[in-house]
Amino acid sequence: MAARKTDFVTEPGKPTVVMTRVFDAPRRLVFEALTKAEHVQRWYGPHGYDVVSCEFDARPGGTYRIVNRAPDGSEFGFRGVYREVAPPSRLVYTWVFELMPDHGAVVTTVLEERQGKTTLTSTTVFQSVADRDGYLATGANKGATESMDRLEEVLESIS
Fold first, then answer.
1. What is the pTM of this model?
2. How many Å apart are CA 58 and CA 21, to the nearest integer?
3. Residue pLDDT, tens place only, 102-127
4. What are the backbone dihedrals phi and psi of residue 119, each rounded to the nearest 5 degrees, phi first?
5. What is 6-158's CATH topology?
């Protein structure tokens, strides 16, 4: 399988990161893979990381929590609250990296389907440009790209 491209856009002075990826799958499957623990635990995190805990309640006001384990054994938790869940086209939720709980963000994910392919556009709005830049400095785009690669593999297995 040829690698697919994950695009990232940041604008000077704006606390946002926009990630776009096209999947060769219908959006109902992409939505399911984004909101069901049994799928998320297979793709969330960079290559070599495992999901050791994955809890999802994908409804407005519902929460989620994911814990990744790195190859060195260290663990990293992520959590948030769903603000909007509109199957199969839109999710809005908070996102908190538990090692930096005061620097959360709001993520809006929109899924658009054309000719059996789904474009995922995820806009993450940080509390400040400094928070956005700190996130990017961690290499998060590389980790997000690898997560999207893993999501592609999951979609192939559930389609």
1. 0.94
2. 22
3. 989 999 999 999 999 999 999 999 99
4. -95, 120
5. Alpha-D-Glucose-1,6-Bisphosphate; Chain A, domain 4 (3.30.530)
